[in-house]
Amino acid sequence: MLSGKGIMKQIDDMIDNILDEVMSKSTRMKKSRMMKAKGKQIARKRKIALKRRATPEKLKSRALKKARDIITKRILKDRKKSELSISGRERLEKRLDKKKTVIKRIAKKILPKVRGAEAERLKKRGDKA
Question: What is the 3-state secondary structure (H, E, C) of 28-76?
Answer without folding.
Answer: HHHHHHHHHHHHHHHHHHHHHHCCCCCCHHHHHHHHHHHHHHHHHHHHH
